[in-house]
Write a structure and sequence with these properties.
Layout (H helix, E strand, L loop, with lengths): L2 H11 L2 H43 L2 E5 L4 E2 L2 H7 L6 E14 L2 E10 L1 H8 L9 E5 H7 L6 E6 L11 E11 L4 H6 E5 H8 L4 E2 L1 E5 L11 H13 L4 E5 L5 H39 L1 H9 L4 H36 L7 H4 L10 H28 L2 H10 L1
Parallel strand pairs: 4-8, 5-7
Antiparallel strand pairs: 1-10, 1-11, 2-9, 3-4, 3-6, 3-10, 5-8, 6-7
Helix pairs in contact: 2-9, 2-11, 2-13, 9-13, 10-14, 11-13
């Protein structure tokens, strides 16, 4: 840092009021950037958690039939392998009532093979004979612990739907976390062969789950799954219904995309207010310290050097604000996971919890727009200074 910059800095920060105003300006700009950064992070985090939760319960593609139960034979297996799936999981899915300790709740029962289901969804579900695995939210609401008994009222398959439902008793052997509130509240898992025997459907299933993309990395681009879905539609009979994993919540995914843009544009008003604070600080310094600035210019300080000072100072303020905004976003993310008053009602927001997810593009977008705003404020200050000749400033000094 050269001597001219230090001299100008001493002039700017001389006096308590200038330092306090500068601190308030930096804090307001930091907060405004943090608000937009957290908004981006919440939207992206919601989108990521929603997709992850849906894939943990539905894989990438779901195949059902209009007639209900169907045979999962070699011919169907070959048709499904047209898209080269990483895993295929036949599933029996039916509705039932769960009964325990005088409480009841409607649930979606899935009969699965633990290994194939885990490979297709990435969700580890260990099913023991005579056991049942239930969602975490269901366990909380029904106050169920591992080792407790739970009864299910089950029908007898679609061919004898008029038969009276049977009540079967199971032992709770584990809990499962999908990340989607409704699924954690409604889904329970049984052994597929055991459920098939209870429903008397033999070797038939009514749902097949396919994993077409690696589950160990986030699926940001949905086009790959759409392409696999379209390929299956062309090769399979019309009686089969082929849906992507997000079909159930497609309206939410699309809404998040629109709201991310619209809310971010609206929140630019907060940045504008913070920029007005910066502009007010610049104008205040220009007026308050004008005599000192013009004296420096009179003894040899060029307008270019003065402009360089303002530019460097503005960039430093921007950098400090960006670092502060990042820190505030991390603190807010920690609060979302650990503070009870920041927890969201899952029945309204679908997810059991929210988190902030920020990628490099989000940081670059928010920080670059903030830099443009703050450079605009600096240019206005420079323009005001340039419009006043040195002789005018010296006259003001000698007349005071």
């Amino acid at each position: 840092m050269n001597s001219s910059y230090k001299s100008i800095l001493k002039i700017v920060l001389h006096g308590r009021s200038a330092g306090n105003i500068l601190l308030a300006t930096v804090l307001s700009f930091t907060f405004s950037i943090a608000v937009i950064l957290c908004t981006f992070g919440l939207m992206d985090g919601f989108d990521h958690l929603l997709k992850s939760g849906l894939r943990h319960s539905s894989g990438d593609i779901l195949v059902t039939a209009r007639r209900g139960f169907f045979s999962f034979d070699q011919e169907l297996d070959e048709q499904l392998r047209v898209v080269s799936p990483l895993s295929i999981a036949p599933v029996i899915q039916t509705e039932a009532f769960a009964l325990t300790s005088g409480k009841s709740k409607g649930v979606m029962v899935r009969g699965i093979d633990g290994k194939s289901f885990s490979q297709a969804t990435g969700l580890t579900v260990d099913i023991k004979p005579g056991g049942i695995v239930i969602g975490e939210e269901l366990a909380k609401q029904m106050n169920v612990k591992i080792g407790d008994e739970m009864a299910l009222t089950l029908g007898r398959g679609n061919e004898i739907a008029d038969s009276l439902p049977g009540i079967e008793l199971f032992t709770v052997t584990g809990f499962v976390h999908h990340g989607i509130y409704q699924k954690d509240l409604r889904f329970v898992y049984l052994n597929r062969n055991e459920l098939a025997s209870l429903l008397e459907v033999g070797n038939k299933v009514n749902l097949v789950i396919l994993a077409t993309e690696p589950l160990n990395r986030p699926l940001e681009n949905l086009d790959t799954v759409r392409n696999s879905q379209n390929t299956l539609r062309r090769h399979m009979e019309p009686e089969y219904i082929i849906k992507p994993f997000w079909s159930e919540y497609n309206f939410l995914i699309e809404a998040v995309k629109v709201e991310k843009v619209s809310i971010s544009l609206i929140l630019q008003l907060i940045v504008v207010v913070a920029v007005f604070n910066i502009l007010a600080f610049v104008i205040y310094i220009m007026e308050k310290k004008s005599q000192d600035f013009f004296f420096l210019r009179a003894v040899g300080l060029s307008l270019k050097s003065l402009m360089r000072f303002w530019l460097v100072s503005i960039v430093i303020i921007w950098l400090i604000s960006c670092l502060g905004a990042h820190l505030l976003s991390r603190i807010f993310d920690w609060g979302l996971h650990n503070l009870s008053f920041l927890q969201i009602p899952g029945e309204i927001y679908v997810l059991s919890a929210l988190s902030i997810r920020l990628d490099m593009m989000a940081y670059l977008t928010v920080y670059f727009v903030a830099l443009l705003w703050i450079l605009l404020a600096a240019s206005i200050g420079y323009w005001r200074l340039k419009q006043r000749p040195i002789i005018q400033g010296l006259r003001q000094e000698f007349s005071s």
